[in-house]
């Protein structure tokens, strides 16, 4: 199973499980997250790039994969994603480099899955 498929399957399965608890606060938090990344004063592409930078600086690999996937869906080019990674590395420092490597691996797998 591909890295992309494995991540998406796990995320979907666990989100369904979490939602099955029917907790109002968790549902509201998930909804807030969904609504934050919708089109507004900033377009979705910009918001996903911001989310990716924040995720890399916070060193959350699941978040990074999610936002790399969303950036791919938004049609970012290799040049654009590398500029996003550059900002994240500059802001986050060298501790971000291992996450950067995994992000590039995930980006390349996303591109290969569309070939």
TrEMBL record:
<dbReference type="InterPro" id="IPR029032">
    <property type="entry name" value="AhpD-like"/>
</dbReference>
<dbReference type="InterPro" id="IPR004675">
    <property type="entry name" value="AhpD_core"/>
</dbReference>
<dbReference type="GO" id="GO:0051920">
    <property type="term" value="F:peroxiredoxin activity"/>
</dbReference>
<dbReference type="InterPro" id="IPR003779">
    <property type="entry name" value="CMD-like"/>
</dbReference>
<feature type="domain" description="Carboxymuconolactone decarboxylase-like">
    <location>
        <begin position="27"/>
        <end position="105"/>
    </location>
</feature>
<protein>
    <submittedName>
        <fullName>Carboxymuconolactone decarboxylase family protein</fullName>
    </submittedName>
</protein>
<dbReference type="Pfam" id="PF02627">
    <property type="entry name" value="CMD"/>
</dbReference>
């Amino acid at each position: 199973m591909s890295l992309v498929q494995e991540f998406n399957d796990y995320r979907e399965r666990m989100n369904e499980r979490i939602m099955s608890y029917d907790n109002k606060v968790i549902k509201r938090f998930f909804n807030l997250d969904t609504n934050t990344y919708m089109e507004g004063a900033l377009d979705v592409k910009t918001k996903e790039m911001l989310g990716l930078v924040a995720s890399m600086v916070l060193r959350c690999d699941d978040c990074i994969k999610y936002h790399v996937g969303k950036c791919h869906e938004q049609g970012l080019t290799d040049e654009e994603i590398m500029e996003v990674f550059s900002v994240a590395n500059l802001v986050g420092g060298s501790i971000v480099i291992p996450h950067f490597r995994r992000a590039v691996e995930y980006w390349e797998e996303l591109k290969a899955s569309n070939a």
